[in-house]
Design a protein that fits this description.
By secondary structure, this protein is α+β, with helices and mostly antiparallel strands. The chain has 5 helices and 15 strands. Helix 2 runs parallel beside helix 3, helix 2 runs antiparallel to helix 4 and helix 3 runs antiparallel to helix 4.
């Protein structure tokens, strides 16, 4: 191993060169740091930052799912329900046999027609002659016959009173006999008036009874029509069926059971976001929202944008015991139909509630920390 020996003047020269290199490095470093600081100050002075409230959203369809509820107890027929089947609004899903309901409805309608016909006959309107009307006409004829007999008696008694009046004037009849004939005429007239009043009261009473019976029958028929309508179960919206209670033709099903659910086929989505009580005053309708959707299996992330459409007026207490407000946001995406979105998916959401100058934001943070330290 050789040892190199330097002269003193050579050592001094190397030392000077090293000092020059170190000084140049520090100068460059200082300039670099100053450049970063100046750039940061310019960026913070002229730049703005979005202030966001983060939360988890759930993808929902704007048209809510429809639950198919069986309302009539009976035997199933014409069953068209199957898992995943596409149905359109108004399509027949299944029927409940309604033979007994139809028979009862026909009986009620026949009774209603008879009651209305009799009411028209009593009210001197148009009517068809049936058993009830014939009975009424017989009663009416009997009343009229009784009136006719009384009218004949009254006519004869009036002639008697006239004759007695002439005899009484010439002294051919006593005052007692003359007044007696007058009293008999008065009694006959009172009987006629009483008979007419009683008949009119009976007629009005029968009309009132019939009117009440007609209204009651109409209500029963309306209820029967609703029941018959309930035996035909149709799709209330267009979508895809999810069977909740399997049924087959011939099965006896009871009322108030959930048979199936219709998931809307429309790709018009909304996002349900739950915002904490402390943040709800910061946001308003129309605020922009950023959504982030992860597809772990497909190794891709999707970012969507939207705006707040609705903020609930009342809070909801969730499982964690905290109060939240429901915020509904829309999705602004032209290619939403190609994203293979599914109802119930979870999304990360960021609600942009305001924009601030970066310098102001930094100063606020520093001010808050200073107050905290005091």
């Amino acid at each position: 191993m050789k040892i190199k020996v330097y002269k003193y003047d050579e050592i001094e020269t190397v030392k000077e060169l090293s000092n020059k290199k170190i000084n140049s490095f520090y100068v460059i470093l200082v300039y670099f740091i100053l450049t970063i600081i100046v750039s940061f100050l310019i960026w913070s002075y002229f730049g703005k930052i979005d202030l966001k409230i983060k939360g988890t959203g759930t993808l929902e369809t704007k048209v809510d799912s429809s639950v198919v509820v069986n309302v009539m107890t009976g035997k199933v027929k014409n069953n068209n329900i199957s898992q995943g089947k596409k149905v359109n609004k108004g399509d027949l899903l299944y029927e409940i046999e309604n033979n007994s309901l139809s028979i009862e409805k026909n009986y009620l309608e026949k009774s209603l027609a008879e009651k209305k016909n009799l009411y028209n006959a009593i009210s001197s309107g148009k009517y068809n002659k049936d058993t009830s009307v014939s009975n009424y006409l017989s009663k009416k004829q009997a009343h009229q016959s009784e009136l006719d007999s009384l009218n004949i008696e009254i006519g004869e008694q009036e002639r008697t009173v006239y004759t007695n009046s002439e005899l009484y004037k010439v002294g051919g009849l006593s005052r007692f006999d003359y007044e007696k004939s007058q009293n008999q005429l008065s009694i006959l007239k009172k009987r006629k008036k009483k008979l007419e009043i009683e008949y009119q009261i009976s007629k009005n009473s029968e009309k009132i009874t019939l009117n009440n019976e007609i209204k009651e029958l109409e209500m029963k028929i309306k209820s029967m029509n609703d029941s018959i309508k309930g035996t035909k179960v149709v799709a209330s919206i267009s979508g895809y069926l999810e069977v909740m209670t399997p049924i087959n033709n011939g099965d006896i099903v009871t009322s108030d059971i959930n048979v199936a659910k219709i998931i809307p086929s429309e790709n018009d989505y909304k996002i349900n976001i739950y915002v904490e009580e402390k943040d709800i005053t910061k946001i308003k309708k129309g605020n922009n929202i950023n959504y982030h959707l992860n597809f772990p299996d497909e190794k891709k992330n999707i970012s969507l944008k939207g705006k707040i459409e609705l903020i609930s007026r009342d809070s909801i207490v969730r499982e964690d015991g905290n109060k939240y407000y429901l915020v509904i946001g829309n999705i602004d995406a032209k290619n939403v139909n190609t994203l293979n979105l599914k109802k119930g998916m979870s999304l990360e959401s960021s609600i942009i509630y305001t924009r601030k100058w970066i310098i102001d934001y930094i100063l606020e943070i520093l001010s808050f920390k200073v107050k905290t330290l005091k």
